[in-house]
Write a sequence for this structure.
């Protein structure tokens, strides 16, 4: 009967979570996120384009698309988001010439993955007390039903696949870590979630070793041969997917990002810009490009032949060596990203509303924005609190690992350390590898940060439960020493 009640509780909480997502994404007055000209990287593969020629980029959210062969583009970008969009097109039967496609079909698929992650999280809590399950579920609801995240679900942004994959990966990994004996199904689910995540964008593929090491370590822990084989297979799939994503990455896009970092940021902030440019491999005749980025008309970065030659003699390896020789400059760049870009958890130049809703161009919704507004306000008021938060979270996880070795708590703490490392890694890449739209590129950093908040909330509730249980046993032992009376009754009996 207890398991039946827990099943009903998980179903009810998942229904609430899914209802909030549906309210924002599917029901009348639904919202999404405007295109910043990146949608074509995914929709081009599917021959999808808006029905009219009016350019609504940045200004309005566009949910309606028409399939036409003339809009087909063999995009140089490969992403799991394209696979999800292809599946949504098939499910909505928008496969013929002239067929209409409503982006809410893709939003529903994204939402289904998020709901699955939420349900797996509840399953991972196992036999925890009901109030602890509700507390953990409440923290996840507050964080991940915020419009900061849900608006991406009604879009073709590759960040949508990254969000869904990362949430499902974290939940399934927690399920494996908490299990006394992990199963083959758990490993396969973790591998699928990780594959969605690492193949969503090149920036995420570079972190494939974290989930690979996790599934490999727990595969060695598994006693069942099928589970062990499934774990190793999941790790191999993750490694292959991440390697393939890196191998097929568009070299021109990477080179343009480096051009922006060198000429638009480093050349404008250093005390001796020319010396910095020479050290980074820039030729003297190219010093004239200081202060421009790759999207300015007339920029040399738009010439693919020139930009590839430029990247060949500069490269991220040379940029990394420059950071190591100038640590104060690297610290200054990271500080600027933390102070200026991190508070923009929601893109301030992308609308959430359709044009027919009647809102001003570029307007954003205020519904379900309490959590992101709070975090943005804290980051704007004192951005360094996030450094303190990561330090405290890491210290708590390490203390758990050392104090409870070889227990489910220590395994989950190891997972928490991995998520914290992933968040820090995303911050470093977003701040040090590019300089345009850094606030939007910090999106996975914010996801990881909110995952650490959920982990900390669940641990705090468990800690309070342990303290209450310990106090109960201490009181019971004292009563047994006093003949069953409460401790303060001994003096009363003596006075009588």
């Amino acid at each position: 009967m207890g398991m039946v009640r827990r099943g009903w509780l998980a179903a009810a909480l998942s229904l609430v979570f899914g209802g909030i997502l549906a309210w924002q994404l599917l029901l009348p007055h639904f919202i999404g996120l405007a295109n910043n000209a990146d949608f074509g990287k995914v929709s081009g593969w599917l021959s999808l384009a808006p029905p009219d020629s009016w350019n609504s980029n940045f200004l309005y959210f566009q949910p309606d698309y028409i399939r036409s062969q003339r809009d087909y583009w063999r995009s140089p970008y490969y992403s799991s988001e394209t696979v999800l969009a292809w599946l949504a097109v098939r499910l909505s039967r928008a496969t013929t010439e002239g067929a209409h496609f409503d982006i809410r079909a893709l939003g529903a698929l994204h939402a289904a993955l998020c709901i699955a992650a939420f349900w797996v999280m509840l399953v991972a809590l196992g036999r925890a007390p009901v109030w602890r399950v509700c507390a953990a579920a409440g923290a996840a609801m507050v964080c991940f039903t915020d419009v900061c995240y849900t608006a991406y679900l009604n879009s073709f942004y590759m960040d949508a696949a990254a969000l869904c994959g990362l949430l499902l990966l974290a939940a399934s990994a927690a399920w494996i870590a908490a299990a006394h004996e992990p199963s083959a199904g758990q490993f396969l689910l973790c591998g699928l979630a990780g594959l969605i995540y690492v193949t969503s964008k090149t920036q995420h593929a570079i972190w494939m070793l974290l989930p690979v090491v996790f599934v490999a370590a727990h595969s060695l822990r598994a006693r069942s041969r099928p589970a062990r084989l499934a774990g190793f297979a999941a790790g191999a799939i993750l490694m292959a997917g991440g390697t393939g994503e890196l191998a097929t990455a568009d070299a021109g896009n990477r080179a343009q990002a480096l051009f922006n970092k060198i000429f638009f940021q480093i050349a404008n902030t250093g005390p001796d810009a020319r010396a910095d440019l020479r050290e980074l491999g820039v030729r003297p005749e190219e010093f004239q490009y200081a202060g421009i980025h790759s999207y300015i008309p007339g920029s040399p970065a738009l010439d693919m032949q020139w930009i590839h030659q430029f990247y060949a003699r500069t490269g991220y390896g040379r940029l990394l060596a420059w950071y190591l020789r100038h640590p104060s400059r690297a610290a200054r760049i990271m500080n600027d990203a933390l102070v200026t870009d991190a508070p923009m958890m929601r893109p301030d130049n992308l609308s959430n509303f359709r044009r027919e809703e009647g809102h001003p161009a570029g307007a954003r919704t205020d519904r379900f924005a309490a959590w992101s507004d709070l975090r943005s306000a804290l980051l704007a008021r004192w951005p360094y609190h996030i450094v303190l938060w990561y330090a405290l979270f890491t210290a708590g996880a390490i203390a758990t690992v050392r104090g409870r070795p070889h227990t489910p708590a220590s395994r989950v703490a190891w997972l928490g350390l991995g998520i914290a490392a992933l968040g820090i890694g995303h911050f470093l890449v977003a701040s040090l590898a590019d300089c345009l739209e850094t606030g939007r590129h910090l999106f996975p950093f914010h996801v990881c940060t909110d995952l650490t908040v959920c982990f900390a909330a669940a641990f705090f509730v468990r800690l309070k439960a342990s303290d209450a249980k310990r106090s109960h046993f201490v009181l019971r032992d004292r009563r047994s020493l006093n003949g069953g009376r409460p401790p303060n009754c001994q003096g009363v009996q003596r006075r009588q």
Observations:
- Residues 464-479, 489-496 have pLDDT under 50 and may be disordered.
- The beta strands are 48-49, 64-67, 100-102.
- The radius of gyration is 26 Å.
